[in-house]
Amino acid sequence: MLMQTHEARLDALRKELARRGLDGFVVPISDEHVSEYVGAYAQRMAWLSGFGGSAGTVAVLKDRAAIFVDGRYTIQVREQVDGRLFEYKSVPQDSIGGWLAENAGEGARIGYDPWLHTSGWVRTVSAALEAEGATLVPVDSNPVDAVWDDQPAPSAAAAFVQEDRLTGRSSAEKRAELAEWLKAGKLDAAVVSALDSIAWLLNIRGSDVDRTPVALSFVIAHADGTAELFIAPEKVTPELVQHLGNAVRIRPRLEFEAALAQLGGKRVAVDPNFGVAAIFQALEAAGAHPVARQDPTILAKAVKNPVEQQGQRDSQARDGAAVARFLRWLEETAPQGGETELSAAARLRAFREETGLLRDLSFDTISAAGPHAAIPHYRVDEESNLPIAPGSIYLVDSGGQYPDGTTDITRTVWVGPGQPSAEQKDRFTRVLKGHIALALQTFPQGTSGAQLDTLARQFLWQAGVDYAHGTGHGVGSFLAVHEGPQRIAKPRGGQAGTDQELMAGMILSNEPGYYKQGEYGIRIENLVLVESRKIAGQEGEWLGFETLTLVPIDATLVDRSLLSEAEIAWWNAYHARVLEVLGPQLQGDDLAWVESACKPL
């Protein structure tokens, strides 16, 4: 019998833990690759708690449980998760280790799945528990799986080849570069476990994870340029075998752990951020020497080559036309009433599908009306679906996966009739000013994202307000919409990417925002490409941003009196470029709408 309530599921898990002699268990949103978005089979935390966000952890004890989420999900977790069953905890203020140590009791045995956590997490939580006389215990099989009756199987979809004409470099070239890195570091092999790293290294893609075109697999790369790909046999096609050639040995995914055991005596690089604890434990048990190093494909993948850069421009132009057609439709239909968050998201997807090249969305569309726009990472479902009310703000953050690029764009629009309030126009214009400041900035080589973050916040700060998310994340090429190592965000201890220098060829988002809880939210997001800049009399190398996303920004929400001449010039130049690129793709009413939306301010 299927367990319908989260209370019943929690009770079943507690009984399973008792049967195994465990006093508690930790359930993260994660998979064996520490992916941001995970396959349906790995959505254990969502099944147990009802939480629909993309980051979080549940800790379960005999008599209480807690759910840990960051500031993006403060409102969402309270809407989706029953507070009678789970205490709400905010990270980083509250820690999982601290909560478990405080509540587990002396002698408690707390289980964890070593295939779902990093070694660093294990060390931190173990230390917290040991200080209180409790123990963190690895499990051989996940107890959630034992009680999840209708758990989906991992995807059996075939992996497919991403052609060199789209990647700009062959897999052999990339593997040779990785081999040189291994030799230089006196390393014998590297475990590549992040799914987008594997996809990039081997020039393959898949459809095993919603919104990210990757294939469930592991790679062990060797210093002689060869590699082993561990992937379920049903996912392997003759085309894949031919593409990979003799230098890549294809082995069943289930043999991965045994292959780690064969690396005894060897120095093996493993990324501590993406290599789960089970990988380190297997290598140590075999007598190998795991060496913690950043996955060598991560930086190479982040710096797009000229072919990838052009693919991104082409996909942005195509996607921009689809989004512009959607915004025209929205402007005409939403003021009449009758549209909802779900109906708008479906219509936007339909416009993208009409391009004929959409492979998937790049993330679940954030279609947010009124107060939901104040939830930065809101995800609409049948239960939360709000009507798009005439005379209100509507925010839509969305993206597409195309063979030549990954897109991500946010537009905030006023749904008529009537006019936005003076406060709404003030906040929108301050967000716009920050967006423009970042878009226009030149900076010396060696500058990190953290050093630029304040540019996007400065005008909000002048009004005594801020936003609780980063300003920019990296983006892949027909890969993950959130890609490291670069990001633009406040410098915070231990937060990945903020100290990574920005390099020519990197793609990032530029997305400041403002959120008034319970009322409305604003975000303006374009993707930008880091490019070399020439400045008269310059000393050293300088960089700047090429704006890639080309879609009109809603002038109804702009208070022109708050803009400088330079900001107005940016607006006009940007919209002239939007019209130049989108115009030839549009006709009739769509073209007329874009021409009107791109008029000088």
Structure, explained:
With 601 residues, the protein is α+β, with helices and mostly antiparallel strands. The chain contains 19 helices and 28 strands. The strands form eight sheets. The protein has a six-stranded mixed beta sheet, sandwiched between helices. α16 (422-440) runs antiparallel to α17 (449-462). It is globular and about 65 Å long. The mean pLDDT is 96.
Can you lay out the helices and strands and say which pair or pack?
Elements: H1 6-19, E1 24-28, H2 44-49, E2 57-61, E3 65-69, H3 74-80, E4 87-90, H4 96-104, E5 109-112, H5 119-130, E6 135-138, H6 143-147, E7 160-161, H7 164-167, H8 171-184, E8 189-192, H9 195-202, E9 204-205, E10 217-222, E11 227-231, H10 238-244, E12 248-251, H11 256-261, E13 267-270, H12 277-285, E14 289-292, H13 297-302, H14 306-333, H15 341-353, E15 360-361, E16 366-369, E17 392-398, E18 400-402, E19 405-406, E20 409-415, H16 422-440, E21 443-444, H17 449-462, E22 472-474, E23 483-488, E24 507-510, E25 513-516, E26 520-523, E27 526-533, E28 542-547, H18 565-582, H19 588-597
Parallel strand pairs: 1-5, 3-4, 5-6, 8-13, 11-12, 13-14
Antiparallel strand pairs: 1-2, 2-3, 7-9, 8-10, 10-11, 15-18, 16-17, 17-20, 18-19, 21-28, 22-23, 24-27, 25-26, 27-28
Salient structural properties:
single chain; 601 residues; alpha+beta; six-stranded mixed β-sheet; 19 helices; 35% helix; globular
Shape: globular
As a whole number of angstroms, the C-alpha radius of gyration is 25 Å
Helix content: 25-40%
As laid out across the biggest beta sheet, the strand order is 4-3-2-1-5-6
Strand content: 15-25%
